[in-house]
């Protein structure tokens, strides 16, 4: 297989790269059932750096057949030997940190520092995978005279993952270590907007010694996802994306008998009470809603201001107003997303809210690319779309309430359940909020409460369809099944119900 050169850019200058092809059977191949092509656009420049061909059911089937050929030898390896590939992969990720960080930045539009943080988190996920040989220890117990029961974790077979545009390297690493070290072969469909990081990863897996066919990349859109859901040779599917699509994918995959875990969107609430530390709160909230330009499911969306917290709100507005798109936060992923975000801001203003910090001028203030500046909308009512719907941009809606009970009722009325946070210096307030909010990932004075490995990533309610978390130990359990073996060797003189 021809080796693809590393991404060459070391600054934000426009840099074209290779076109995205499918990785099947250890080879980069063209789609056999193309459904058109799309430009892969660098959002900072608004120009295509690559193109991707959208695949269909025949391409998914080709990947499944290649995986089936490779699986017997892979699953026969001891778990510890499978993990050795990821030990080598970790060193390669560290070696190529700069190239990968710049690649993520160019295909996604985020800042270099955010791209580097994504690579670092991907490495953390790999490190957890490397620990699985020490964690996935089966149990062995003598349950009766001369009779033992043993529990083992066995692979499912061929599995699939569908990942979003906003973290093109990190989110695949939520799935790949547990799935592959667990003895499966995985077919990954990256976002058609950001497929390039998977080209780099495919090359690194090859260098790390992963057998051909165990990791496949099939690029595409809706047709590809539906083919993954429908293919009878795929045993499980993981998905990360919007709630609307997550719900549909979960239903379709489960209808074919697959195991499915689909993470959806969010509308995270940050509750601020009067005793909150001003500087910690101001800095943390602004970082939460502007980091990655708000294009992450853990970003702040609604600030619920309890009582008199005016100095903190004023500080948030000042800090947000001083942020410069392109320097302090990155671009928006597409022109369509820019228009959607702007539409929410326009709508809130028309409904009587106050646009205290207006990021809309950034749309026309840049020479090229897709931009929305940090935006703070004050006096938002709970019934407004900006308070209830996922915007996925650098927009913070401020909703004012009088009491903590009102704030909790507002948060619990939210159909999503990804993240929630409280800013306080009171242990009692923190305890009350953490015990009552409807969210799977919660923070006390932490505006992006992403669990670090080995703690699993996953929300509640309309933010998650399926059982368990995507990362951590839950992830390993999702991609494996438990085999119970009962053994009797010694002859026994008496009889039990186990004969």
What's the SSE blueprint?
Layout: E1 22-24, E2 27-29, E3 37-42, E4 47-53, H1 57-76, H2 79-95, H3 97-108, H4 112-135, E5 140-144, E6 147-155, E7 158-162, H5 170-181, E8 185-189, H6 196-208, E9 215-217, H7 222-230, E10 236-240, H8 243-255, E11 259-263, E12 268-272, H9 278-290, E13 300-306, H10 310-321, H11 335-350, E14 354-357, H12 362-365, E15 375-378, H13 385-388, E16 395-401, H14 404-412, E17 416-417, E18 419-423, H15 427-436, E19 441-444, E20 460-461, E21 464-465, H16 472-478, E22 480-488
Parallel strand pairs: 7-8, 7-10, 8-9, 10-11, 12-13, 12-18, 13-16, 15-16, 18-19
Antiparallel strand pairs: 1-2, 3-4, 5-6, 6-22, 11-21, 14-15, 17-20
Helix pairs in contact: 1-7, 2-4, 2-6, 3-4, 4-5, 5-16, 7-8, 9-10
Verbal overview:
This protein has helices at residues 57-76, 79-95, 97-108, 112-135, 170-181, 196-208, 222-230, 243-255, 278-290, 310-321, 335-350, 362-365, 385-388, 404-412, 427-436, 472-478; strands at 22-24, 27-29, 37-42, 47-53, 140-144, 147-155, 158-162, 185-189, 215-217, 236-240, 259-263, 268-272, 300-306, 354-357, 375-378, 395-401, 416-417, 419-423, 441-444, 460-461, 464-465, 480-488. By secondary structure, it is of the alpha/beta class. The chain folds into two domains: 22-264 and 463-483, 3-Layer(aba) Sandwich (Aldehyde Dehydrogenase, Chain A, domain 1), CATH 3.40.605.10; 268-444, Aldehyde Dehydrogenase, Chain A, domain 2. The strands form six sheets. It has a seven-stranded mixed beta sheet, with helices on both faces. It is globular, with a radius of gyration of 24 Å. The model has no long low-confidence stretch (mean pLDDT 95).
């Amino acid at each position: 297989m021809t080796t693809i050169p590393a991404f060459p850019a070391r600054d934000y200058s426009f840099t074209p790269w290779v076109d995205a092809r499918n990785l099947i059977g250890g080879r980069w191949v063209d789609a056999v059932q193309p459904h058109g092509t799309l430009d892969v656009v660098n959002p900072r420049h608004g120009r295509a750096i690559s193109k991707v061909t959208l695949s269909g059911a025949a391409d998914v089937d080709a990947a499944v057949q290649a995986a089936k050929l490779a699986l017997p030898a892979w699953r026969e390896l001891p778990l510890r030997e499978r993990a050795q590939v990821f030990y080598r992969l970790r060193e390669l990720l560290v070696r190529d940190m700069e190239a990968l960080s710049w690649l993520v930045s160019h295909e996604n539009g985020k800042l270099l520092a955010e791209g580097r943080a994504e690579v670092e988190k991907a490495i953390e996920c790999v490190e957890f995978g490397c620990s699985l040989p020490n964690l996935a220890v089966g149990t062995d117990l003598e349950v009766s005279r001369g009779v033992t029961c043993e529990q083992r974790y066995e692979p499912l077979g061929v599995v699939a993952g569908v990942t979003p545009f906003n973290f093109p390297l990190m989110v695949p690493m939520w799935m790949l270590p547990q799935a592959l070290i667990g003895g499966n072969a995985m077919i990954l469909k990256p976002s058609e907007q950001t497929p390039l990081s998977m080209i780099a990863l495919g090359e690194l897996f090859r260098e790390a010694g992963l057998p051909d066919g165990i990791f496949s990349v099939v690029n595409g859109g809706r047709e590809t996802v539906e083919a993954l859901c429908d293919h009878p040779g795929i045993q499980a599917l993981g998905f990360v994306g919007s709630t609307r699509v997550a719900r549909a994918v979960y239903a379709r995959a489960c209808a074919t008998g697959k195991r499915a875990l689909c993470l959806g969107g969010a509308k995270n609430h940050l509750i601020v009470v009067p005793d909150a530390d001003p500087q910690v709160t101001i800095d943390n909230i602004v970082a939460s809603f502007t980091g990655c330009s708000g294009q992450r499911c853990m970003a702040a969306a609604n600030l619920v201001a309890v009582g008199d917290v005016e100095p903190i709100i004023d500080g948030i507005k000042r800090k947000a107003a001083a942020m410069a798109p392109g320097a302090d936060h990155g671009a928006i992923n597409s022109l369509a997303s820019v228009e959607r975000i702007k539409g929410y801001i326009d709508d809130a203003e028309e409904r009587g809210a106050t646009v205290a910090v207006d990021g809309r001028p950034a749309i026309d203030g840049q020479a090229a690319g897709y931009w929305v500046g940090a935006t703070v909308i004050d006096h938002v009512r709970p019934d407004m779309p900006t308070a209830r719907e996922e915007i996925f941009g650098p927009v913070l809606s401020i909703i004012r309430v009088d009491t903590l009970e009102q704030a909790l009722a507002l948060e619990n009325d939210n159909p999503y359940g990804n993240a929630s946070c409280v800013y306080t210096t009171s242990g009692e307030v923190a305890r009350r909020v953490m015990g009552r909010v409807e969210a799977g990932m919660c923070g006390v004075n932490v505006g992006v409460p992403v669990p670090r490995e080995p703690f699993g990533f996953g929300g509640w309610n309309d933010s998650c369809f399926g059982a368990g978390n995507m990362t951590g130990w839950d992830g390993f359990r999702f991609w494996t099944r438990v085999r119970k073996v009962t053994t009797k060797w010694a002859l026994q003189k008496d009889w039990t119900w186990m004969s």
